[in-house]
Amino acid sequence: MEIIDLTVRKPGCTGHPIVRLNTVLRDMRKKRKSIKIIINTEDIPLRALELSLKRYKYKIKRVFERKDTTIVEIEAVLGEKCTDGTQNVN
Fold it and tell me: Which residues neighbour 53 within 8 Å (Cβ) at sequence distance 6 or greater?
């Protein structure tokens, strides 16, 4: 399982956690493996996360809420097409 930490804001507009999340999901679409994402819900609300995941045909498997961060395990929804037309197969 790959772990992606989006709790640190990077400089510039492409460094915002939601932009980085979409970049990671786009890059991971061919691997279709389970991913653990660490977020700050002030930067990425769970609803925004769900919308991004839906676009790339991932779904939330588990959510672990901590004091300052939230850990979200996600998995690919196999057999469905992403919005870019690629198919989720494994």
Answer: 25, 59, 60, 74
